[in-house]
Every structure is written in structure tokens, then in C-alpha cells.
Amino acid sequence: MGLLALAHAAVLLGWIAVHALLGDSRWWSFLLNTFVLYLFVPLAVTVPLALLLRRPLLRACALFGAVLFLVTYGGLFVPPTLRAAPPADAPRLTAMTFNVHVTNQNPDGVAAAIRRAGADVVGLQEVNPAVARALRRDLAARYPYQVLGAAGAPSTLAVLSRFPLQPTRIALPGQWNDTPLVARLRSAVKERRRDAVLSAAVWPDAAEAASRRFQDWRGWLDAKLLDVVCPMAYTPEAALFRSQIAC
């Protein structure tokens, strides 16, 4: 049993090395990090056996695995009542973000989900006309302050608020949607992790993406600022789907 526990500890050490050196930069390391929780399943056997058999090697391996599990996932088991709470007199604002998906055909369900969440401010992405109408119709009482994108647009943004929304003159420095920003982002990412793969979800029509969506993704690819683009080809029509992913 000690040798099996040692082999399990070696597997966990291997995951630590992969996670530290590669992160999610390879498809297989991404898959490993996604399902790493299952690497800790043998602890359900090794920890009780270590307590019963009192073998030094078995105990050491079980202790290592248990500590690594607590470091990785321990925060999820802390009861909310034990977490640091803001002062009682501190102002509170709850926010929610919701990508409803441009092809969503259940606008009533979207409105119901927002109502159940009860956030003070809601930011929505990929709002189609049917969802926009449901927001105005069903949530006007709860969220009297609404800002929705262009009427009739196939996909737009929206902000719902229980409190008044005020225009602001605060602006991000420079042109936040320009190519130099993408270059700075790439530089910052590569500085931290040289093997990282930089990707972006983009509007499938390159011309419209550049002129109306602030995404000159074809230029970013040509300049090698992005490694991968993922066209948001949300359509049930096979021919249109093929054209949208034919970058």
C-alpha cells in the first residue's frame, strides 16, 4: 500500500509541475487542470489507511495529498459565516453579469433568472431583440433605470439598475480598443507565462468587427498579437455557420 500511496504522491507532484510550468497553455494541460479534482479521489482510501496502519511512508504520502487538497480547494469549505464580513455600516452594492446568448429563445426565463438573483446592477451581453423587450416589459418596476443598445440590433449590451445611472466624463486613457492595447496585453501575458496561448472570442465578420465592434482581429492575427481567434458563430444555419468560421 505504501508504494501505491507513493505513486499517487508522484502523480500529484507531476500535476504541480505541469500547472506551474505550463498552466493551460497546452490542450492536455488544460484538460488535466480541469479535471484535477479527481486526482485527489484516492485520498478517500489512503488517509483512513494511514490513520489505521501507522506506516511512515503511507502517512507521509497521505499527509502530502491532504495538505495539497486543502491548499487547492480548502477555501470552498469555509462557511460564509466565518468569512470576513464588511462593516455593518458599509454601503453595499451587488452586481451580476449575464451572457444570455444571442440565440436565446427564452426571454421570459432570462427575466425570471435576473429577478431571482436580485442584484442591484445587472450587466448583460448578447441581448437579442426578444430578450430586450422582455427586460423592458417585465423588469421595469424592479430596474427602473435601463440602458440598452441599439434597438433592433441582433446582439447588443444592456445595463439594468435599481439606482439612477449618471453619465460620466471619466474615460480610459488612450484608445482602449486599439491595437496597441492588444499588444500591451500580449506583452503582459507573455511576461508572466511565455507559453501562454492568447485567444479572443470575436465577431465572425472581420469587416464589421473592425468597423463596428472595435475588434480588428484580422489585423491582430497578421501582427501575431493573437494566437487564436474564436468566431462567435451562433447560428443554426449550416451554410452561414461555415461562412462565419471560414476566417
Question: Overview of this structure, please?
Answer:
- The protein has 247 residues and is an alpha/beta fold.
- It has three domains: 2-77, no CATH class; 95-161; 179-245, no CATH class.
- It is 46% helix and 12% strand.
- The chain has ten helices and six strands.
- The protein has helices spanning 2-21, 27-34, 43-53, 56-73, 107-117, 129-138, 179-192, 206-212, 217-222, 238-245; strands at residues 95-99, 121-127, 145-148, 156-161, 199-202, 228-231.
- Strands 1-2-4-3 form a four-stranded mixed beta sheet, with helices on one face. Strands 5-6 form a two-stranded parallel sheet.
- β3 and β4 (156-161) form a beta hairpin.
- α1 packs parallel to α4, α3 (43-53) crosses α4 (56-73) and α5 crosses α6.
- The longest helix is centred in the N-terminal third of the chain and has 20 residues, at 2-21.
- It is extended and about 70 Å long.
- 15% of the residues are buried.
- The model has no long low-confidence stretch (mean pLDDT 87).
Give the key terms.
6 strands; 3 domains; 247 residues; alpha/beta; 4-stranded mixed beta sheet; two-stranded parallel ribbon; extended
